[in-house]
């Protein structure tokens, strides 16, 4: 930017970035326009690819990619303007009750309020369907089904996942990954926030080396957070789509199976094809005998029920599971996108005591995502 | 400069991209994006010409199952054959709803399941037949050298079959030209078991009318923008000054510029929604009208509702909020300017998505409520998916707007301005945004569920798999009812400002006004069940929402009486904005009173889905929100543009619009009580006792339609007034009306930044002045907040 304009609004900032923050926040940006267009293209193309659960036009995938590329361009413009932000321009609240608190911090808390409502709505959907649709296990044991006709019932993913410690393993590992990542982001904040003198004392470096030493350290902690978030999504994909083998000696503990099937290959999908699972086979009820006190058992003993495999239409249960955990996953992905920018900026020395609050405000979001998982995990994985 | 050229290229690309994406859809309307031809070919003119007569011969009155018939397609009239040489005479397109079409000879080809002529497209000089013969080669058979063709049709085994035939009559020059004409006909042939054939000649497709009108309004808008640009700087009317100017508008994060963009979008879509309302009224003017088909009517009222609420009312409100909130609280801008620009730009893109269905003739036909399970069914139009996608973007936009305004109002008030010194318009925006912010995520989640249901095939609302349509109703109305208060509360704020300024005294009962708005904001969340009284909701909940809905009348009544008391013993100055505020008081109170019939369960069951409901919500939406926004336009336009509006035009606008408005919606109460159902594409006078609708309905409906057209055109007085003001209005002083809130203390139009960020204005005195220090509650709350410098030791 030219140097001859030193008043806050007199200079002509570039809408493409980079931005000189000593003049105040950017007054022009192409990012909002570009990102909006990208989102529009993405939603339009996605709806052309899939119609009613079937692939209608695979060629429109290029449109989906185009949308993502345009959104990325918008994001890069936004970041290019933000990269030079070092805390010199930090507007503070003037009115009660938030006096002297950073505007960004208030805005982040307000944003989390709406996020709370998003997950409340998803949980409302879940509770309504979980309590309103008969449970598959109960329908099976009641004997009110015949082989060959599909039965609408709610199959909680937990019925598959919590059936074996191994099946639960990715979710459990994810819980720890997220909790540890909440810790690493606080470490990044702590490192960035320490005054130069304190930092020099603490890590026994020269005062002149503090900046570079701190930059590496902050980037390391931010990078660890990013790694843990990536691990989270990777394990989730394994759990949903890939599955994994169980170590040989431990196969015994896994009901004799040498492999944990993914939810997809177990047939736990949103697809219209009916669900068949060995859990609902009278000959093999999840490796156990049918409980003798169940109606199904007495009916089969009396010869009034022929037994067989129950076909369960579990689409609603699967939809609530995949969309709720998927929405949480998208929040993790959003955090990863933010973290990749922050790690890069941290590496370039962008976070020092004057600008450590940026990490804190991202941390608010990150802790929230963590907290949501703490609720999602028991509701969808354990019970 | 490099940046300039980059900006120029981007602007050029955006303009080109928009033109490219919009132009072909207008041109190829009959095929549409979806590729389903229903309307023939408009490549030779936009409207069918009655001079061309298509005909199909060889069709039986009732067909036999699986029999092949040879059909002769022909046409007469139009410019065909006027040229000397017998080539390039015309073409046709024949679609059938069932059965199989086959070509008899080379003049006809089958495209998909439709038959069309076999043309030679690369024959540039238009002499294909002649040239080929002269060259001694084989005669090239070109289907467009004929005016009649043969097609074989194999009938289906049962049902009836509808044929749609479009023909072109062209003048033989091989190019599209002005005297080319086309026409369309449709024949239904009954199958083996049913009655005789029905033949009807179709009129122009209303969608073509609509799209044409949208384009005309777009071009007019562009002309106004260009003319304004020209007036502002006649010498700089070249690319070098245009590129930075348009770049500034595309990229600005200044609250005043973004606010103006909101206005442009809002007024544009107010016009589009108005055009749709007019088409709806044409359809309903006389009994049994066939101007719109049932299918088109469903799309029109869906798009009308969606456009008016989300693309007209909300942007207009946001336009005022953007402009005035920083000015009224003494802030230099909103808290998050770039986020603010983002929430604006999501809107036009979302609007384009919502309207894509219109261009393909497959717009959403679900009603603005988008009730499940129809919205996720395959029978719902394909444009519904785009409608949902566009709404998701609007939800994102509203969420960002909410973050911005809540943060701004909470934290950027000038020194001395406590919560109870805030102008009432700021209060209304605060309460409205809080409501919207807390409620809209629920609908956003519902929309995402529907979007996923319609695309990747989740089953949230598929009844066969156990999905619950009532869940959608809950998620929608949990948002939808606060939403109607979100659009009315800002109007309350405007009326409070306008009346207290016009009566030249402070508003009566400021605190009770604030508590009333906050009360509406709280009650809004526990009343939504009254939209679902007949949907099979739990009787207990019905009773609860019946009582809580009646409760809404209390805070609203407090506001009405406070406004009356503000004028009482005040000294009222009758400006245009005062007239609109007084008009608001009348119409909104009437709308409020008619609203009090619905909470009563028994009354609601009777009035549900009748025109009484339509009358009620238009009385509060138009008589409330739109009149409030009109008052705001007349009140704040001098501040925004720096020029005074013409009061005579304003008076004319008020008189025509107010009278014709009441002429539209007042008779609807009567129609509703008499049993005219809403959301029906037509109505009939009947003597059948059970469904008896009396004969005077016809006159009332015609009266409503005439009034609607007067109302529609009367609003162009406002548009004309605004343009006239910008071009040649007299300069406005800083405080033309004698208002005393912060926005009147800065110049008209205000500078940028609106106030000096390093030296904000200080509120020294206001009539509602209580104390500049926080109250006991405020002090307690503030003590819970940790100022930044005290958090040092914690980590």
Would you write up a description of this structure?
- The complex is a heterodimer of chains A (383) and B (795).
- With 383 residues, chain A is mostly helical.
- Helix content of chain A is 57%, strand content 4%.
- Chain A has 2 domains: 1-84, no CATH class; 103-132 and 163-275 and 314-382, Up-down Bundle (Four Helix Bundle (Hemerythrin (Met), subunit A)).
- Chain A has helices spanning 31-49, 61-82, 103-132, 136-142, 157-161, 165-193, 196-203, 210-242, 295-302, 315-347, 357-382; strands spanning 50-51, 54-55, 150-152, 244-245, 259-260, 311-313.
- In chain A, a hairpin with a 2-residue loop joins strand 1 and strand 2.
- Chain B is an alpha+beta fold and 795 residues long.
- Chain B is globular.
- Chain B has 2 domains: 53-204, Sandwich (Immunoglobulin-like), CATH 2.60.40; 252-728, Cytochrome C Oxidase, Chain A.
- Chain B has helices spanning 2-27, 128-134, 206-232, 239-251, 255-284, 294-329, 337-359, 383-411, 424-454, 469-502, 510-523, 539-551, 553-567, 576-595, 601-607, 611-641, 647-674, 696-728, 776-784; strands spanning 53-57, 68-76, 90-96, 100-103, 108-111, 114-117, 148-154, 161-169, 181-189, 198-200.
- In chain B, helix 14 packs antiparallel against helix 16 (611-641).
- At the A-B interface, helix 1, strand 1, helix 3, helix 6 and helix 10 of A face helix 1, helix 4, helix 7, helix 8 and helix 9 of B.
**Any idea of the CATH class of the largest domain in chain B?**
Mainly Alpha
Mean pLDDT of chain B: 83
The CATH topology of the largest domain in chain A comes to Four Helix Bundle (Hemerythrin (Met), subunit A)
Q: For the residues shown, what is the average pLDDT of chain A?
A: 88
Radius of gyration of chain A: 27 Å
Largest sheet of chain A: 2 strands, antiparallel
Strand content of chain A: under 5%
CATH class membership of the largest domain in chain A: Mainly Alpha
Distance between the termini of chain B: 48 Å
Q: Helix- and strand-based class of chain A? A: mainly alpha
Helix-strand topology string of chain A: HEEHHHEHHHHEEHEHH
């Amino acid at each position: 930017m030219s140097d001859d304009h030193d008043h806050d609004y007199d200079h002509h900032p570039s809408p493409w970035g980079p931005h000189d923050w000593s003049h105040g926040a950017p007054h022009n940006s192409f990012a909002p326009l570009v990102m909006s267009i990208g989102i529009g293209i993405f939603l339009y193309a996605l709806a052309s690819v899939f119609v009613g659960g079937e692939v209608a036009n695979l060629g429109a995938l290029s449109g989906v990619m185009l949308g993502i590329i345009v959104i990325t361009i918008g994001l890069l413009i936004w970041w290019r303007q933000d990269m030079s932000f070092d805390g010199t321009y930090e507007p503070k609240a003037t009115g009660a009750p938030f006096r002297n608190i950073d505007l960004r911090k208030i805005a982040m808390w307000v944003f989390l309020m709406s996020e709370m409502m998003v997950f409340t709505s998803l949980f409302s959907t879940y509770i309504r369907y979980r309590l309103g649709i008969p449970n598959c296990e109960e329908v099976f044991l009641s004997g009110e089904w015949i082989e060959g006709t599909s039965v609408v019932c709610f199959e909680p993913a937990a019925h598959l996942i919590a059936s074996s410690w191994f099946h639960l393993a990715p979710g459990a590992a994810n819980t720890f990954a997220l909790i540890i990542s909440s810790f690493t982001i606080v470490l990044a904040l702590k490192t960035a926030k320490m005054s130069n003198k304190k930092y020099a004392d603490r890590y026994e470096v020269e005062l002149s080396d503090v900046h570079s030493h701190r930059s590496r350290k902050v980037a390391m902690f931010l990078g660890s957070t990013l790694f843990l978030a990536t691990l989270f999504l990777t394990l989730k994909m394994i759990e949903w789509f890939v599955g994994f083998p169980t170590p040989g000696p431990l196969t015994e503990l896994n009901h004799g199976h040498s492999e944990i099937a993914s939810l997809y290959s177990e047939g736990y999908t949103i697809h219209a094809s009916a669900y068949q699972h060995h859990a609902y086979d009278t000959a093999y009820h999840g490796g156990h005998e049918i409980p003798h006190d169940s109606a199904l058992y007495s009916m089969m003993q009396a010869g009034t029920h022929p037994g067989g495999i129950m076909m369960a239409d579990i689409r609603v249960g699967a939809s609530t599971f995949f969309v709720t955990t998927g929405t949480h996953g998208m929040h993790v992905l959003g955090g990863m996108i933010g973290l990749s920018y922050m790690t890069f900026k941290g590496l370039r020395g962008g976070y020092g005591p004057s600008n450590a609050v940026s990490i804190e405000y991202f941390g608010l979001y990150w802790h929230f995502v963590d907290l949501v998982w703490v609720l999602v995990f028991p509701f969808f994985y354990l019970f | 400069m490099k940046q300039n050229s980059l900006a120029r290229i981007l602007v050029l690309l955006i303009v080109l991209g928009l033109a490219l994406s919009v132009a072909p859809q207008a041109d190829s309307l009959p095929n549409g994006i979806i590729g389903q031809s229903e309307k023939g070919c408009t490549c030779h003119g936009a409207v069918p010409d009655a001079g061309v007569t298509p005909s199909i011969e060889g069709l039986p009155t009732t067909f036999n199952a699986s029999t092949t018939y040879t059909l002769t397609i022909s046409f007469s009239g139009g410019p065909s054959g006027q040229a000397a040489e017998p080539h390039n005479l015309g073409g046709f397109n024949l679609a059938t709803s069932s059965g199989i079409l086959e070509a008899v000879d080379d003049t006809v080809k089958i495209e998909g399941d439709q038959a069309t002529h076999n043309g030679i497209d690369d024959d540039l000089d238009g002499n294909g037949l002649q040239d080929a013969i002269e060259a001694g080669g084989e005669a090239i058979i070109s289907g467009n050298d004929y005016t009649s063709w043969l097609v074989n049709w194999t009938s289906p085994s049962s049902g009836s079959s509808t044929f749609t035939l479009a023909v072109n009559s062209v003048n033989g020059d091989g190019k599209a030209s002005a005297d080319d004409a086309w026409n369309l006909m449709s024949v239904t042939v009954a199958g083996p078991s049913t009655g005789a054939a029905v033949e009807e000649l179709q009129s122009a497709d209303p969608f073509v009318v609509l799209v044409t009108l949208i384009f005309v309004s777009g071009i007019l808008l562009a002309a106004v923008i260009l003319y304004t640009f020209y007036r502002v700087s006649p010498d700089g009317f070249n690319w070098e000054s245009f590129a930075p100017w348009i770049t500034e508008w595309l990229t600005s994060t200044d609250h005043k510029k973004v606010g103006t963009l909101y206005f442009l979008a809002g007024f544009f879509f107010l016009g589009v929604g108005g055009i749709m309302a007019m088409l709806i009224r044409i359809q309903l003017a006389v009994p049994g009208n066939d101007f719109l088909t049932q299918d088109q009517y469903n799309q029109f009222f869906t798009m009308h509702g969606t456009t008016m609420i989300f693309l007209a009312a909300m942007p207009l409100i946001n336009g005022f909020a953007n402009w005035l909130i920083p000015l009224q609280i003494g802030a230099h801008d909103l808290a998050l300017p770039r986020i603010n620009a983002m929430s604006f730009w999501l809107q036009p893109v979302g609007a384009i998505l919502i309207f894509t269905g219109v261009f393909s003739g497959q717009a959403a036909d679900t009603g603005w409520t988008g009730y499940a399970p129809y919205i996720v069914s395959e029978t719902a139009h394909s444009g519904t998916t785009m409608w949902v996608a566009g709404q998701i973007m609007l939800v994102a936009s509203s969420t960002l707007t909410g973050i911005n305004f809540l943060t701004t109002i909470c934290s950027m008030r000038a020194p001395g301005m406590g919560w109870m010194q805030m102008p009432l318009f700021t209060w209304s925006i605060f309460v409205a945004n809080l409501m919207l912010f807390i409620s809209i995520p629920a609908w956003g989640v519902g929309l995402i569920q529907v979007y996923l249901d319609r695309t990747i095939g989740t089953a949230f609302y598929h009844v066969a798999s156990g999905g619950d349509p009532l869940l959608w109703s809950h998620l929608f109305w949990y948002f939808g009812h606060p939403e109607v208060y979100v659009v009315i509360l800002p109007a309350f704020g405007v009326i409070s400002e306008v009346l207290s300024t016009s009566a030249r005294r402070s508003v009566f009962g400021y605190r009770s006004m604030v508590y009333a708005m906050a009360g509406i904001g709280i009650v809004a969340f526990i009343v939504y069940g009254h939209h679902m009284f007949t949907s099979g909701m739990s009787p207990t909940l019905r009773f609860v929402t019946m009582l809580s809905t009646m409760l809404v009348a209390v805070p609203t009544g407090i506001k009405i009486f406070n406004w009356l008391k503000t004028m009482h013993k005040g000294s009222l100055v009758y400006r245009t904005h005062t007239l609109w505020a007084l008009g608001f008081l009348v119409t909104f109170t009437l709308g409020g009173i008619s609203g009090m019939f619905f909470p009563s369960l028994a009354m609601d069951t009777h009035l549900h889905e009748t025109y009484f409901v339509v009358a009620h919500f238009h009385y509060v939406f138009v008589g409330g929100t739109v009149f409030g926004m009109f008052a705001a336009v007349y009140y704040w336009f001098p501040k925004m543009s720096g020029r005074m509006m013409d009061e005579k035009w304003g008076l004319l606008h008020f008189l025509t619009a107010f009278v014709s408005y009441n002429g539209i919606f007042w008779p609807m109460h009567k129609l509703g009580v008499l049993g005219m159902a809403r959301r029906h594409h037509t109505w009939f006078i009947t003597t059948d006792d059970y469904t008896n609708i009396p004969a005077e309905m016809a006159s009332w409906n015609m009266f409503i339609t005439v009034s609607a057209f007067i109302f529609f055109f009367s609003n162009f007085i406002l548009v004309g007034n605004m343009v006239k003001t910008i071009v040649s209005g007299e300069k406005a002083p800083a405080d033309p009306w004698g208002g005393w809130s912060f926005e009147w203390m800065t110049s008209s139009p205000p500078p940028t930044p609106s106030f000096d960020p390093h030296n904000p204005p200080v509120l020294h005195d206001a009539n509602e002045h209580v104390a500049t220090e926080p109250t006991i509650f405020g002090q307690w709350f503030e003590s819970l907040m940790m100022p930044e410098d005290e958090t040092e030791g914690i980590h």
